[in-house]
Specification:
The chain starts with a strand and ends with a strand. The mean pLDDT is about 95. The protein has helices at about 30-40, 45-50, 55-65, 80, 85-90, 100-105, 145, 150-160, 175, 205-220, and strands spanning about 1-5, 75-80, 110, 115-120, 125, 165-170, 185-195, 200, 240, 250-255. The chain contains 10 helices and 10 strands. Strands 1, 3, 4, 6, 7, 8, 9 and 10 form an 8-stranded mixed sheet that branches. Strands 2-5 form a two-stranded antiparallel sheet.
Length: about 260
């Protein structure tokens, strides 16, 4: 069983990774090709392309200019600890045990607009490039065209080598679109809904956090059988069979924790 997650726009560049063993992104040569094209963008072009402020655009132009392999602990950081959004707050990697981090490294893969897909302990350098960004490049009009089936092909090989036949899709639609239709696995997509006003609704902040919580839950229990994820109950969520289907598992929560 594998999980896939989206990355985060917010990055924690300050705190060091509390682990001593790291890996390198397998698709780094592809990222180098993409970065060569990104470096050609001026801050104003980045601002317009990514719909970000001038300050954020300048920061990322500087990141692009400084980006350079080889990646070491002096110039890069493990992806699991660098990403700092709602999903990663749910995982709470800094407070996971070595055994739990080992599980996450084996079973979780992080999708990325720049790196394609990385293992949690792969060293990466800071960047900003969302998968849905309409960045025209040598391979086409956007990043979906750039990556083609490369991400899915890598995941298929990785899962086959690990003997994993099921992928738990905890990524956003924007990122899952980069692999959808090309994966050779059973796909399970958990959906998290909270009660609001007069019904259950997907609330982005809570749903993102719940995706991370599910990874934490699986790591704490070293889960190998995907059916055991139906027992997920962190922060008040519970599996609802009536609302679920074979490939979409719905978890409901009456009130936010």
């Amino acid at each position: 069983m594998f999980f896939v997650l989206s990355p985060a726009k917010n990055l924690n560049e300050k705190d060091p990774s509390p682990v001593s063993s790291f890996t390198q992104p397998d698709l780094l040569p592809e990222a180098e090709i993409l970065m060569q094209e990104l470096r050609q963008l001026a801050p104003q072009q980045i601002s317009e392309l990514m719909h970000v402020s001038d300050k954020i655009a300048l920061l990322n132009a500087e990141r692009n200019a400084a980006w350079a392999p080889p990646f070491t602990t002096d110039n890069a950081k493990a992806a699991l600890y660098l990403f700092n959004g709602d999903v990663y707050e749910g995982i709470d990697a800094y407070h996971r045990s070595p055994a739990e981090i080992g599980y996450i490294q084996r079973c979780v893969r992080l999708l990325s607009g720049l790196y394609g897909v990385v293992r949690p302990l792969d060293l990466i350098q800071p960047y900003r490039l969302e998968m849905g960004t309409p960045f025209a490049n040598a391979r086409g009009a956007n990043l979906y065209r750039f990556w083609g089936t490369r991400i899915a092909d890598w995941l298929n090989g990785d899962m086959q080598a690990a003997g994993a036949g099921t992928l738990v899709n905890l990524a956003s639609q924007e990122y899952y679109k980069a692999v959808s239709g090309s994966l050779k696995a059973e796909i399970i997509t958990p959906v998290f809904k909270d009660w609001k006003n007069d019904g259950y609704k997907t609330i982005s902040f809570y749903a993102k956090r719940a995706r991370g919580l599910m990874v934490r839950y699986a790591a704490e229990r070293q889960i190998q059988n995907v059916e055991d994820l139906k027992n997920f109950d962190l922060e008040g969520y519970a599996y609802n069979e009536a609302a679920s289907s074979a490939d979409e598992w719905v978890f409901l929560r009456q009130a936010a924790a």
